[in-house]
Write a structure and sequence with these properties.
It is an enzyme of class 1 (oxidoreductase). Its cofactor is Zn(2+). GO terms for molecular function: peptide-methionine (R)-S-oxide reductase activity. Its EC number is 1.8.4.12. Keywords: Metal-binding, Oxidoreductase, Zinc. By secondary structure, this protein is α+β, with helices and mostly antiparallel strands. The protein has one domain (about 40-134): Peptide methionine sulfoxide reductase (Metal Binding Protein, Guanine Nucleotide Exchange Factor, Chain A, Beta Complex), CATH 2.170.150. Helices cover about 10% and strands about 30% of the residues. It has two helices and nine strands; from the N terminus they run H-H-E-E-E-E-E-E-E-E-E. A six-stranded antiparallel β-sheet has the order 3-4-8-7-6-5. Strands 2-1-9 form a three-stranded antiparallel β-sheet, with no helix packed on it. Strand 6 (about 95-100) and strand 7 form a beta hairpin. The protein is globular, with a radius of gyration of 14 Å.
Amino acid sequence: MSADDSKVRKSAAEWQEQLTPEQFYVLRQSGTERPGTGPHLNTFEHGRYDCAGCGQPLFLSDTKFDAGCGWPSFFRAVTPEAITEIEDKSLGMVRTEIRCSNCDGHLGHVFPDGPPPTGLRYCLNGHAMVFTPE
């Protein structure tokens, strides 16, 4: 079995049955919630942020910071393998989209303007994640 065979694959109907409308829009239709409207923006408890589609661990609370951008932001993924980076040329700009490596759900984008130690800002849609307190 290849690594691709173990990925979560579902039909659009199966995803719609499992996810809330907001989660489906973000994760499966590559949508973006309006700044300041999604969950987890002001969550700073200790815990872990997992993919709302498949439950894969994505980010830890000790890497979360207030970027002032209106979306939950992190400076490092839980592991490099947790996310897939894709060049995004939509909206007349070049950005790096991030997706869950397990279910291919759209998470947000990563930018090179974050704090030390990585200098990265993983800018996430709150609806793409579920929070599990420590």
